[in-house]
Design a protein that fits this description.
This protein has about 190 residues and is of the alpha/beta class. The protein is built from six helices and seven strands. The protein is about 40% helix and about 20% strand.
């Protein structure tokens, strides 16, 4: 039975050296939501988390502090400690398979080779959780993927990404009030 409580989880890497990198767009979305709902973060367990309400509904915002590729531990802890089903969470993540600024919202599905999503699927023993993927492009040479995702957006891409962060913030809040199907229909770009 699904809960009325929702947790939106942005994936990224903790630490100032990773702020503004392609891999941290999930954290940027969570920060934008926190600004919108006027909540601040506290470290609890494996995540920085903020609790509040959006249009009368309980809302958690989480930034796992386990590093991107080990996000599953933090996500499983959030699901277990809050007695949630996988469908009660929404994971926001970068995607090199989408062009910069493209947004893909799904109810469930494969990991697309994304190590953070793979780790979550392993820990939850399921791919049956909603997710929003934000395209960051894949303009890198062979063997340069890690360097690319850990680099900051150049100015021309930042101009594309900034409005997308706001768009995904609104999509995530729609998930809280309207559910994933309505959100997919309204916010996929």
């Amino acid at each position: 039975m699904a809960s009325s409580k929702r947790i939106i989880i942005g994936l990224g890497n903790p630490g100032a050296e990773y702020e503004g990198t392609r891999h941290n767009v999930g954290f940027e979305v969570i920060d934008a939501i926190a600004d919108r709902v006027k909540e601040s973060f506290k470290t609890k367990g494996q995540s920085k988390i903020a609790w509040g309400k959006w249009r009368g509904r309980p809302l958690g915002l989480a930034k796992p502090q386990t590093f991107m590729n080990r996000s599953g531990l933090a996500v499983e802890e959030l699901v277990r400690k809050n007695n949630l089903d996988a469908q009660d969470i929404l994971v926001v993540v970068d995607d090199i398979h989408l062009p910069p600024g493209k947004v893909r919202i799904r109810q469930k599905g494969g990991t697309g080779g994304h190590n953070g999503l793979e780790d979550i699927a392993d820990w939850l023993d399921s791919n049956n959780f909603p997710r929003i993927r934000i395209g960051i492009g894949n303009d890198f040479g062979r063997g340069q993927q890690a360097e690319y995702v850990l680099s900051r957006f150049p100015e021309d891409e930042r101009k594309i990404i900034d409005p997308v962060i706001s768009h995904v913030r609104d999509a995530a809040l729609s998930f809280v009030t309207d559910g994933i199907v309505t959100t997919m229909n309204r916010f996929n770009l």
